[in-house]
UniProtKB/TrEMBL annotation:
Annotated InterPro entries: EGF, EGF-like_Ca-bd_dom, EGF-type_Asp/Asn_hydroxyl_site, Fibrinogen-like_C, Fibrinogen_a/b/g_C_1, Fibrinogen_a/b/g_C_dom, Fibrinogen_C-term_domain, Pan_app
Superkingdom field: Eukaryota
GO cellular component entries: extracellular space
An example Gene Ontology molecular-function term: calcium ion binding
Protein name: Uncharacterized protein LOC109485993
Domain Fibrinogen C-terminal: 221-450
Annotated PROSITE patterns: ASX_HYDROXYL, EGF_1, EGF_2, EGF_3, FIBRINOGEN_C_2, PAN
Domain EGF-like: 182-219
Name of the gene encoding the protein in the UniProt record: LOC109485993
Keywords: Disulfide bond, EGF-like domain
Domain (Apple) ranges: 13-98
SUPFAM superfamilies the UniProt entry points to: EGF/Laminin (SSF57196), Fibrinogen C-terminal domain-like (SSF56496), Hairpin loop containing domain-like (SSF57414)
Disulphide bridges: 209-218
Species this chain originates from: Branchiostoma belcheri
Pfam families: Fibrinogen_C, PAN_1
Amino acid sequence: MLLIITAFTEISADFTDLFVHIRNKVLSSHDDELIGGITPEECAQKCLEGTTDVPEGECLSFDYRKVVGRCQLSRDNKDTAGTALDYNSQFDHYEMKDIVGFFSEHADQALGGHDDVIVTPPTVSPRTCALRCLLGEGSLSVGSCLSFDLDSRGPRCMLSEDNQNTAGQALDSNSRFDHFQRSEFCIPDPCVHLHQSCTNQVNGFTCTCDPGWEGDSCDTYTGTITPQNCADLSAMGIQTSGTYHVGHPQPFQVSCDMDTDGGGWTVIQRRQDGSVSFDNTWDVYVQGFGNVNGELWIGLEHLHSLTSQQQHELYVYLENWEGTTKFARYGTFSVGDSTSKYTVTISGFTGDPTLTDDLAPTITHHSINGKMFTTKDQDNDGNDVNCGATFGPSGWWFPPSCGLALLNGQYLTGCSSSSSCTSAQGIVWKNWLGYRYSLKKTVMMIRPSGFPGKYKI
């Protein structure tokens, strides 16, 4: 559905759209204020609106420590600090975009008689006025401010729901003012569902909605299509973990986790009791096997279908026999089609601070990124031995070393801290408990990146 917006409706914005998101990087030694128990979206809003320690207009970037949910506001970015960002998998760095660049400037001119809201930030500048216009102020909701005049004598920001086009009048010459007319309407993105696109128009934006979604901002589910994944189900208001049907045009049954980190996760693999053998052939791994309510492998064809339409993230839950749990998370995860032998793309590791990246480490000899899938009857790993036949046996994306994480290995109950089993035959996360320890439980889950910020009804 194509909708051209001439009169704005109120928009629930994700203010991280106003920042460049740089994964696994941090601006070291530039944390001017620390705020705990907060989301990246809330942190972005703090940076934009200002706080007691970092007032409005002073914040240029923030670092977000993902595991503990801590926001670190900074008056600098990498350019003003004159330093490069440091690699740290526990953090993501957010740098504010050129906000003033979202407006066209008309020096020594004003839009007379259209000062709907007048504001005086602590420091009046094009940047602080532009922020007030974008964030909304008073009677002007987010997205409804089309222009502003900067009064240098006041000094003050004069925000308007009109521009010279909607007002039908030319700008007045006045050396006291500079006029700024908004030209970027898709940042922050007003189209709230991930399956959409936003296009700038002269006086607003166009949302192109996917089938099954409608409304000015693609925010209303019509119920006319089958949800494509568990995140879609969550967007429809389903918040209970369980078994559901997803996919179009041929729906299939999946297990949805609606509890972990906001929910919306589609379970692609689960090991918990050894009730299902993972010693299977290529065709079985392609189609999938197991019990959707218990141990399962969703199938390579379903994995490709789920991850080929939009970017996904991967969550890996790990539990040992002593009751200790850990998790790994990857910002990017996708699986190719059958012609690629279901090649996996995976990167952006975060997770438990004490857990090492065993799926896509920087040492490429051990990384599964870019590797084809291998089973005991179809060897695509490029090694001297068939890793799938040697370890498990099982199906997996095996790197040159055959891997550090072997999550589809045999379910072995005697491999714990007190007694070890044959090396690399069980369910293994090597750099946590070693090759001879087989884990009690693992769950692999995926969901579209950016959830839940752009998934709303």
